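Can't paste images in this forum, so I'm doing it all in text. The chain is below; anyone willing to post the predicted structure tokens underneath?
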Amino acid sequence: MKTEKRSIAVFIASPGDLSNERKYFRKAVDLLNIGFADGANVLFEPLGWEDTLASTGRRTQGVINKYVDRCDVFILVLHRRWGQEAPDAIPYSSYSEEEFFRALERFKKTRSPEIFVFFKRVAASQEAYPDSQLKKVLDFRRQLEDSRQVRYRSFDDNEQSFIFEINLHLKAYVKGELSPIDLTRDSVVLPLSALEEVRKAKSEAKKLHQEIRFLQLQIAEDASNLAKEGLLENARQKFVKLVTDTADTHILYLGYQFFYQTGDLDTALIVLNRWLDLNGDNQNTPATAFAYNNLGILFQTRGNLDQAEVMHMKSLAIDEALGWEEGKARDYGNLGILYRIRGDLTQAEEMYKKSLAINEALGWKDGIAHSYANLGILYKTLGDFNQAEQMYKKSLAIFEALDQKKDIASDSCNLGTLYQSRGDFNQAEEMYKKSLEISELLGFKIGMASAYRNIATIYQIRGYLDQAEELYKKAMIINEALDMKEAIAGNFSDLGLLYQSRGDLDKAEEMYKKSLTINEALGLKVGMGNDYSNFGNLYRTRSEFVRAAEMYEKALTIHKTLRLKEYMANDFGNLGTLYTTQGEFDLAEEMYKKSLAINQELGRKDSIAKLFNDIGNLYLTRKDYNQAEAMYKEAQTIDEALGLEDGMARGFVNFGNLYQLRNEVDRAIEMYEKAYALFKKIKSPFEKSIAQWLRDLKSKKRM
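Text version of the structure:
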């Protein structure tokens, strides 16, 4: 019998300039009640000043305060206005402020309600010179940062961004997944080279008695220090005024980096466009090329690859006209990254090698290291693991000598993916955690999200699905906040695989569709191929074999075109499993052997173990029990050496099936018990199935 739903009262407070958001709030709550809340056996009750109109015919603050006093969740939303003046609510200057502090005082006494504050982003030009209302909002935001008493987030000026925040926080509240309010501060470390240029410019301004410029450069340096200390609101308010007023490209670049790293890509775009506007007709300068280069990076971050290419080509045209070799090397490298993301690996390699040749001729170590790293990623994608490792280590050695921590984090992550592909999961995890530690130290959100995803994948491979899901969601929060479309697609794919591992096929399909929608919109062939493979596995599990074959062939076509050996090996393996299921054993064996040959060439140990198990299952189906046992033993040896408990457990199940077919019941029970113990340890969804098998087998033995 289903228990009565728990009612959760959610109150929204906001000034009058957020009428749309109040509508979006009601819409979000209605949708949550239809879907998520019903499954969680809760019912969200939306509350706001509108409800007093329905009950009393007027907006009565006394009634509103009663709603604040009984709500379970209090949400304050602010934009440019502080709220209606409240002469009868002294010491508070608005009713919204009174409602917030009323909820906060109650929280301090009773630990309820949960409080969330959301700030709708304001244009930098308005934030730089705020009117009296906006100034109060900005002061309040700084007060929240200083006190660290409640959670607060910013959202973009659109319905989707606001509803995402409502959904995210209310779901986390219900599931008890809200992390404790972090008393530490998110630090943002801006590029040291840019800071050094600001210091040089400041010294020059002092010599030339350029007092206003000197003051602006000093404020920029102060803002950078505040960002490093984690006082982001203080830093932001300095930067928005600077980038609105200054004509100094050193300050604009520093401001761009701040807004880019904190996820405010709209303001970052405004800063770069202002940079270009200041140059006027004088477009053929290194500074203009650099601005176009950063615009390319920004558009690429947002997944707009065509626009990114236009910007990088503009930068390259200027650098070529100027004969500026350093700029050309940078442009070639960025174009290489863009072509690799698109799946045009031949063109990517050409760009990387051009960049490397220039950097080596210039003796520019930083550029050489980046070229090595880019080539490493390319060779890893092509399945040339040895050459990839050589490139990564060359790159890492240079960055460590230069003490460039952000790049050290990136190379550590790259080495982690390489070790993971080889099946060296301990070494991979070590590299990922090194990358995460550095990224957290720097406040480098993109690096943190990447590390979370990679560590989660290791946990998933090992069968620790709950820990994996937690980290995938951490990564998703960052990527959605930064609008990293390619990474968001990857997050959906990751979660789909995880839900499929748990047997939740409908949820997995939902995730795969979201991933494919993004990848198709961006024209990302590698991502599309990965999605098709995932759909194939899903349809095969549902016994929709025709659809599964169609998806596998689509994936294989893309991966062959792109020469992606690692992915091709997976495709052949998937087709082998499909043909086995359909009873086409000769075709299945052919596919498995193609996959095995590639994996052995690449040294992918965990994949080799899986294939030995798959081939063993094929022999088992043919009743070639000795061959099956030999394959299972090969697989078990590898899984034990790698410490893969999930793989070992599945191996024990295979042995159990084999011994049961041989009527060696005691040995079968022994294997199933070993599998059960491991599945229980890692909290695998297969734990219950194995337990039932054991009960049935023991019952049959007693008869």
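The first strand starts at residue 6 and ends at 13. The beta strands are 6-13, 42-47, 73-78, 114-120, 151-155.
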